[in-house]
From TrEMBL:
<dbReference type="GO" id="GO:0006402">
    <property type="term" value="P:mRNA catabolic process"/>
</dbReference>
<dbReference type="InterPro" id="IPR011989">
    <property type="entry name" value="ARM-like"/>
</dbReference>
<protein>
    <recommendedName>
        <fullName>Cell differentiation protein rcd1</fullName>
    </recommendedName>
</protein>
<dbReference type="GO" id="GO:0030014">
    <property type="term" value="C:CCR4-NOT complex"/>
</dbReference>
<dbReference type="InterPro" id="IPR007216">
    <property type="entry name" value="CNOT9"/>
</dbReference>
<dbReference type="Pfam" id="PF04078">
    <property type="entry name" value="Rcd1"/>
</dbReference>
Amino acid sequence: MQVDDSEVIGFLLQTEIIPLCLRTMEMGSELSKTVATFIVQKILLDDIGLRYICATAERFFAVATVLAQMVQALAEQPSARLLKHIIRCYLRLTENQRACAALNSCLPTVLKDGTFNNFLLDDNVTRRWLQQLLSNMSIAGLGGGSSHTGMGGGGSLGGMG
């Protein structure tokens, strides 16, 4: 039986999957963190999931804060697989205009300053994703941005974007 990904994502979002994944991303083993981050990535890659995460500032910043903590830890002890999933999550978040603008204030410096350059030499896909992420951030910083809908939730990001 083939099930539409959007149906699965919709179902998962009705559960406590996001908070559970975020806790695991903060405190789990490397394998658990990788699996939890992959789940968050899959949710974000679906339009329903991206809208859900970006619907309120609280949800967005919960995800962004955990991703930032993980990146800081990876600067000390890199994991190629985990970094790839984190960068992909950030890249997808930049497809939401207000999330992209908010990331300008909370994207970890180590993603912008070349800390991971040598580590990503042999991973063309992740290196391209990181370059695209930084390009999207640069465009958003210049007042550009994507045409995707912004964060809802009654203007809960007021002043952040």
